[in-house]
Amino acid sequence: MQNFAAPRDNKKTQSNNIESVRHSLAHLLAAAVLKKFPTAKLGIGPNIEDGFYYDFKLPKPISDSDLAEFEKTIRNFISQKLDFSGEKITPLKAKKLFKAQPFKLELIKDFTKEKKGLTSYSTGRIFVDLCRGGHVQNTSEINPGSFKLTKIAGAYWKGSEKNAQLTRIYGVAFQTKEELDSHLKALEEAKKRDHKKLGQELDLFTFSDLVGAGLPLWTPKGTLLRDILDDFVWQLRNEKGYERVDIPHITKKELYEKSGHWDKFKDELFIIETREGHIFAMKPMNCPHHTQIYARKQWSYRELPQRYASTTKVYRDEQTGELAGLLRVRAITQDDAHVFCRPSQVKEEIFKIWDIISEFYGKFGFELSVRLSLHDPRHQEKYLGTEKLWKESESVLRELVGARGIRAEEAPGEAALYGPKIDFMGKDALGRMHQVATIQLDMNLPERFDLFCINEKGERERVVMIHAAIMGSIERFLSVIIEHFAGAFPFWLSPVQVQILTVTDRAINYANEILGNLKSNNIRVATDFRNES
Hints:
The chain is an alpha+beta fold and 533 residues long. The chain is 34% helix and 26% strand. The strands form seven sheets. It has an eight-stranded mixed beta sheet with strand order 12-16-17-24-21-20-18-19. Strands 2, 3, 4, 8 and 9 form a five-stranded antiparallel beta sheet that branches. β14 (271-273) and β15 form a beta hairpin. InterPro entries: aa-tRNA-synt_IIb (IPR002314), aa-tRNA-synth_II (IPR006195), aa-tRNA-synth_II/BPL/LPL (IPR045864), Anticodon-bd_dom_sf (IPR036621), Thr-tRNA-ligase_IIa (IPR002320), Thr/Ala-tRNA-synth_IIc_edit (IPR018163), ThrRS_core (IPR033728), tRNA_SAD (IPR012947). Residues 220-490 form the Aminoacyl-transfer RNA synthetases class-II family profile domain.
């Protein structure tokens, strides 16, 4: 077997190999857990943004007091100056090495089937893991004061509810203790701003076990907040010539078979069988429905662009473990629009959408950056259409972003099923980045649904489809702005702009007079006339 140490780079120090530090800490966490629970079964333990985690099947539940004990054990391991070393191993040796670890054996089987090489990584003599590497060379490179185990959560093996439920332990790690302290302070502030907590306190939304997980119920105040946001989007779209359309929430499966969604998204669909035996699905997106509105008649090139928009629900069968407040739900409200235009009109239409996005997010003080989300040519099976169409679409978006004078990050593999995207990333008050609005260029659905116009020569000409979402998921956007403003919304957005309080019953008549004046000026008012003095 070929042995090798963790790669050494004399220029690399603790200050610039933080990802290796985080990955190494995940292994040390697993070693600490095995020291306390020798029969624990190991899942996976990667480094992630700001830290790391490891999944375990444990013999008994653990608490925060256990995290403190694991931290102490990890620091002891760090002080031992243990080497990390890797070894390429055969499937036979891997099975022997991890014979008591069923999840590792499953991974070995998967990797062998996929013809991927197997590697084990040892940490001194205390721990060995099935791992591709990316570690420090020695634990002395890890600052023992710059990491912390932060929380315990549940997770399903391989992310599927059909599999075993594991215990996930999260940790964060930075180059210095000062960075760690700053991050922990930000986490505390984020807890105070948690939209799930503030949403209940402000009486914006609620959840019901009888209704189901991932299905928020909106109160009068929350509904008003949603309407204010949606009205603002419609105001901006109306100025650009968009028209409202309305579509049903279910469809025959044949629509999604033709669009390609049935093959790619079938597992995420809520499927309904009618009494007559027909198969319908709750719509997970709106674009196929909008194509059918366009396809209702023959269009002259003089009538393009056609701009359709709906604020409507879509439904996705998300796994319970992935649901998170408003951030990820099963019933999603989208402010969705689709433009059907000629290729020569794409630039103007995308710039109109870009202007809407800039004005909308400027109202909230969001600092926007742009990401160009492209397909991954190594996995063409994940996408609709030919490589030629994808290259053409991506070339158009690159040109448009350049014409706007913007330097965009490129993200291969982040494209939508049917086309590349311009994703807008917004930074909130805590410095966190969120994907907010998106513009997608689609040459595939017009091909699949044979969408065309009649051009100047009287010939059929294929149209292009542009997908545009300003807020995207209204639920997700609300989770962002609730935390961004810490619940203290600006005056124009607040569901209650003025509250009238009386200190004695004698003031009620005057208070009602004020109430009437404010309402006549479209001020949103609440009253509290209780006599509790």
